[in-house]
């Protein structure tokens, strides 16, 4: 992790200590990640739909396009991450048939599942207009950010 990423992560952890809601934690995170991480052109959360756990619905997000609002767990990179419970990193979305286009500008994407009390609660999705954005260090950072949200959700 870079010093800038460590600093952001510490900011999120501090904020989460006194944040009123998980929504507030997620909003702060997407705003800061979008502003400070220049290659994160779209950052957002997808949450398990309380009405139908076979779907993810868009939560707080920041970026230059409107995302897919509702995604079945059976489709897209978000669905793949949710169904497998594992991080999905795609360095060139044009080469992955699972990719559900939110924007034709997106070149790479990373989706990190968020578990609260051993149950899928949602995921943190980062998309970039540049191929090969999400290195191992980037993945470690985004996973740590998702972990802040998971920890907050478990306490509530």
CATH homologous superfamily descriptor: GAF domain
| Basic shape | globular
Question: Major beta sheet, specifics?
Answer: 6 strands, antiparallel
Name the structural class: alpha+beta
Using DSSP, what is the number of strands? 6
CATH class label:
Alpha Beta
The neighbouring-strand order within the major sheet is 3-2-1-6-5-4
CATH fold-level topology? Beta-Lactamase
* Beta strand %: 25-35%
* Number of structurally distinct domains: 1
> Poorly predicted ranges (pLDDT <50, ≥5 residues)?
none
CATH architecture: 2-Layer Sandwich
**SSE pattern, N- to C-terminal:** HHEEEHEEEH
Return the average pLDDT rounded to an integer: 95
Model description:
The chain has four helices and six strands; from the N terminus they run H-H-E-E-E-H-E-E-E-H. The protein has 156 residues and is α+β, with helices and mostly antiparallel strands. It has one domain (3-155): Beta-Lactamase (2-Layer Sandwich). The protein has a six-stranded antiparallel β-sheet, with helices on both faces. The longest helix has 20 residues, at 136-155. It is globular, with a radius of gyration of 14 Å. It starts with a helix and ends with a helix.
